[in-house]
Amino acid sequence: MAPPGLVALLALSASLVNARLQDGRPHGNAPPIPVLPVVEVLDSRTEAFQFSGSSIPPYNTVYYFDQLIDHDDASKGTFSQRYWHTWEFYQPGGPIILMTPGEANAAPYFGYLTNTSITGLIAQQEHGATIVLEHRFYGLSNPYPDLTPESLKYHTIQQAIDDLEYFANNVALPMPNGTGVTPDKAPWILVGGSYSGALTSWTMVNKPGLFWAGYASSAVVEAITDFWTYFEPIRQNMPVNCSADVAAVIAYVDETFSGENTTAIDELKATFGLSDVTHLDDAAGALRNNLWDWQSLQTNSGPGTQFTKFCDALEVKDGEVAGEEGWGLENALASWGGYWRDTYYSLLCGDANAEDCFGSYNASQEIYTNTDIDNTWRSWFWIVCNEVGYYQDGPPLGVDIKPIVTRLVNVETNYDARQCQLMYQDTYASPPLPDVERTNTVYKGWDVSIERLFFANGLRDPWREATMNAEGVEIQSTDRQPIVLSDGFHCSDLSAARGASDASIGALHKQALESMHNWLAEFTSSA
Ligand SMILES: *[C@@H]1O[C@H](CO)[C@@H](O)[C@H](O)[C@H]1NC(C)=O
Ligand SMILES: *[C@@H]1O[C@H](CO)[C@@H](O)[C@H](O)[C@H]1NC(C)=O
Ligand SMILES: *[C@@H]1O[C@H](CO)[C@@H](O)[C@H](O)[C@H]1NC(C)=O
Ligand SMILES: *[C@@H]1O[C@H](CO)[C@@H](O)[C@H](O)[C@H]1NC(C)=O
Ligand SMILES: *[C@@H]1O[C@H](CO)[C@@H](O)[C@H](O)[C@H]1NC(C)=O
Asked: Which of 36, 216, 359, 526 fits 193 for a cystine, CB–CB 3.0-4.6 Å?
């Protein structure tokens, strides 16, 4: 199964319906969602099977839990929350391992029940049962039948945390003794990646004692409004000639678009096939797509990935590869522009015109007005606008780097906040800034200090700078709260296969499994 990443999108998107991109982004200037990778189900156990003498239901069986709509007011009633579950490895006394894929329809993620993921590896080693729970407001787990701002009132980090608590305390699991394994009787382990990795940390902070242990992969624990550092792991790890040439082009773009020479401005837009784009910040911001392709490298490594093709287009000239300095502005402009006009534009936008594909100013577009459920991006952007930010924009002035992203897209000009207003019309009187201070105060962000919580991060993860391995933050790893950095990308370590193919991830898995083993030995039932 292909992950809903951008490379998969590029391969698929010949036709683009009303400029909605295949990864759920409403247009080419909407920041990508930090989804976690889908893992394969090796045995494709989508039929009942025998294991250790028991008949186990198919992995993809959907179960439903009556979840409270509003944890502050039970009179609002309940909604059906979907989950998946297996007990193939379970033995009495074993842990219950709960993971949520967070901001996605959870149906493609049932592989996380199995030993192709870290969740299943823990279950296999510790004789536990696994659960994949769909997060409220994603997929088919919705309190109300639409995603209007009125319904989204109940879409908050706190309600999601309260969901986990209410689920763990009240679910009757479809397994032997399935009502006798609540967190007071059995050790529960919470697992997540990316946003749901952060949710793992935030939940353990907010509900001490509920989960006995946690595994948080690429957890973006710190909410950051101006998240320009998203592009830092990319800049640091991409080929140096490529970053030199990208920086040369971006410097020219910013200078030209900030100036008054309309001939030069029009020429530059035309270079990338973006003449139809009305606003210059949208045109300059569109060039972020080539860098956003980096996020998909984890699942499409090696030559042939879109990011690699991009750097090859810039750096290989007449069969010759540029040295460290790159080829310089003139060649970079011509080759980057040619790459856009010849292949990239249509991969990204299909037949859509450039304004529909990259414009972020038109409130009448269906992408802003459609409030149907199962629209990941709409649900995710609500959390972005209100609680976490993570705006992937250009670096502030004065930062001593050569930017690879335009400064025309920034927090001061409300580039993302303006889109919040369009998306949730009549919700905000002015462009909103998320209350990240509250998020980081209530859920502790980088200041988390919790027993039995394992943080797993990736050096090349673009989300690294919001994790416990952010540069310059220097948080101490301890036996009780290990912080382990592999060579991986975003949430690579959730996959068992990655542990086999990358030694640093293999070592991380070993350490995590040892920690879980030791921590579970400390559990004593309170019932
Ligand atoms: C994974 O689990 C299956 C049972 O679902 C088992 O047959 C297989 O051997 C396990 N794989 C590994 C590597 O342990
Ligand atoms: C069922 O769960 C209870 C509470 O954890 C436990 O005491 C009992 O031994 C369990 N029974 C079986 C058959 O596993
Ligand atoms: C130059 O770019 C090419 C193509 O991306 C890359 O393979 C090579 O490693 C780069 N070399 C240097 C010195 O950056
Ligand atoms: C404006 O830009 C064009 C195209 O780059 C250039 O030829 C021209 O000299 C510029 N005009 C001025 C006044 O700088
Ligand atoms: C805005 O979007 C609507 C709906 O797609 C379209 O009819 C209209 O032409 C657009 N306006 C502009 C200025 O692009």
From this structure: 36
Q: Is 91 in the pocket of ligand 2 (CB under 6 A)?
A: no
Ligand 4 binding pocket, CB closer than 6 Å: 261, 263-264, 267
Question: Which of 36, 39, 50 is CA-nearest to residue 4?
Answer: 36
- 115 touches ligand 1 (CB under 6 Å): yes
Q: Which residues line ligand 3 (CB under 6 A)?
A: 239-242, 311-312, 315, 321-324
47-223+441-522 folds as Rossmann fold (3.40.50)
Q: How far is CA 212 from the centre of its chain?
A: 25
Q: Which atom of ligand 2 is nearest to the CA of 181?
A: 5
Distance (angstroms) between ligand 1 centre and the Cα of 295 equals 29
Cβ–ligand 2 contact at 185 (below 6 Å):
yes
Helix (H) or strand (E) holding 484: strand 483-486
pLDDT of residue 184: 97
Rg (Cα) of the chain, in Å, rounded?
A: 23
What are the respective helix, strand and coil percentages of the chain, to the nearest 5? 40, 10, 45
**Residue 405: strand, helix, or coil:** coil
CA distance 148 to 353: 28
Could you report the average pLDDT of every consecutive run of 10 residues in the chain (527 residues)? Answer: 30 36 78 77 68 86 98 98 97 97 94 95 98 98 98 98 98 96 98 97 98 98 97 96 98 98 98 98 97 74 77 97 98 98 92 93 91 95 97 94 97 94 94 96 98 96 97 95 95 93 96 98 86
β pairing state of 78-86 and 63-68: antiparallel
Q: Is the CB of 365 under 6 A from ligand 5?
A: yes
The structural domains of the chain, with segments of one domain joined by +, span 47-223+441-522, 231-371+400-422
Q: Which ligand is nearest to the CA of 277?
A: 5
Contact predicate 360/27, CB 8 Å: yes
Q: Which of these, 115, 395, 143, lies nearest to 247 by C-alpha position?
A: 395
- Counting ligand 3 atoms within 8 A of each CB, the residue from 321, 324, 327, 336 with the most, and so the one to mutate, is 321
The pTM of the whole model exceeds 0.85: yes
pLDDT per position as a tens digit, 162-199: 999 999 999 999 999 999 999 999 999 999 999 999 99
